[in-house]
């Protein structure tokens, strides 16, 4: 995946095929499946194309049914469920090979004043004091498993600085809590709808891994089958996305070959801009069943 933010923007610039029908593409990648954040973001853009410019997404809820094939386009079919006085609702189905791979419902609202409160951002070190991808490999590469160093060597449009590195350097069983500073490498457009889609793209990163912490495991483990099952997101405030954001995550439960994780995305100054929840498949491969 290219580190150039323009690549993401071109991915989000989906093609209009017909009324309520759009087509998105995937970047050239070695991944066998389409990144879930890409599908979420493209589906959101498709919904935005059918909504008045003065209405902005405040929540989305999606389900992953099949892994996306990065070698072919994805068709997005938008259903206009409601156009009300203040709120607009859309349903989007992402289709490949004639089958639904993802479905999204999103709600949009005009800006309105109202009561305000929020949770407090965790007290963590600032990103300038933490290691980046290259520094992590340089310092801890000799104790990291190969699949983890391979993960950190990948060039991404989003930089990640984990507050704690124990999960990547040991098999220690840890509390199901993770804090990562994240930042887009390049300048983000000033257009608010685009920023919301980019934030949705980023929101799918690192979430599911948090549910493996208490078990001394990681999504990189070859005997685990890991995949997102659903994804929900609430957009609280617009943000220019031009600085580091703290993605604070916790996993209150896992079971039934599933893991559940919650996320809060804060600005550096502690303002909460979005909340996320995701459940995913975390299945341990066992001996072949007969």
SSE topology sketch:
Layout: H1 5-12, E1 15-18, E2 21-24, H2 36-48, E3 56-64, E4 74-83, E5 87-96, E6 99-109, H3 133-140, H4 146-153, E7 158-162, H5 166-169, E8 177-184, H6 192-202, E9 224-235, E10 245-255, E11 258-267, E12 272-284
Antiparallel strand pairs: 1-2, 2-4, 3-6, 3-9, 4-5, 5-6, 7-8, 8-10, 9-12, 10-11, 11-12
How big is the Rg? 19 Å
pLDDT < 50 runs, ≥5 residues: none
Question: What percentage of amino acids are in beta strands?
Answer: 35-45%
Query: How many domains, in number, for the residues?
Result: 2
Structure class: alpha+beta
Query: Tell me about the biggest sheet?
Result: 12 strands, antiparallel
Q: In one word, what is the shape?
A: globular
For this structure, the CATH topology of the largest domain is Thiol Ester Dehydrase, Chain A
Strand order of the largest sheet: 1-2-4-5-6-3-9-12-11-10-8-7
The oligomeric status of these chains comes to single chain
